[in-house]
Design brief:
It is a single chain. The protein has 185 residues and is mostly beta strands. The radius of gyration is 27 Å and the shape is elongated. The chain has no helices and 20 strands. 24% of the residues are buried.
Length: 185
């Protein structure tokens, strides 16, 4: 962790001289897991430290509350699909649910924050909210509209979240069953 230097020793008389300065190598940690902890050990000097393994879970909830983050999913044709966002574009990713929790990987583009009566996300310093545009499409709107979760469906201004053929849409009829999964630590 500190700078070093090379030394030169004379074979005949044993006299030593300092040579070039050598940069510090720094630690090189390897990680192992022990129960609920991760143990990091330096392969160069043996120094180690321990950190607890923090597990984020996403559990199904029947209501949403301000300030929390959620994964919005619908159940369609035997699978769960999470509503994703990348910049201003919406997408879909299949997720695996077991015992009321998402057990597959959850990425940042699946997380929506509920605040001020709106579900949304921040990207590039701009806030985006779920909104209604036209009669049957789901869009992202900076003005937003109030969103509420009721009757196992996500209601946005009288429309309901629906998944069909790889896309989410808003529809007054034949809505897919919607499930909200709250992020917990």
């Amino acid at each position: 962790t500190e700078k070093g230097y090379t030394t030169y020793t004379c074979r005949n008389c044993g006299d030593r001289r300092t040579g070039h300065v050598v940069s510090a190598l720094g630690h090189s940690y390897e990680c192992t897991e022990d129960g609920n902890d991760r143990i990091y050990t330096c392969t160069r000097c043996g120094e180690s430290y321990t950190e607890p393994i923090v597990t984020t879970t996403y559990r199904s909830v029947s209501s949403i509350s301000s300030g929390s983050s959620y994964v919005i999913t619908v159940y369609s044709s035997g699978k769960y699909y999470a509503l994703t966002h990348t910049g201003g574009a919406l997408g879909v990713t299949a997720v695996t649910v077991s015992n009321g929790q998402i057990v597959s990987d959850v990425t940042d583009d699946m997380l929506w924050t509920y605040s001020g009566g709106k579900l949304g996300f921040t990207s590039g310093g701009a806030n985006y909210y779920l909104g209604r545009y036209g009669y049957s499409s789901l869009s992202i709107s900076t003005s937003g509209s109030r969103a509420s979760y009721s009757s196992s469906r996500l209601s946005l201004g009288g429309y309901y979240l629906r998944y069909s053929n790889g896309y989410f849409s808003l529809n007054r009829r034949s809505a897919s069953t919607c499930y909200m999964f709250e992020q917990t630590n």
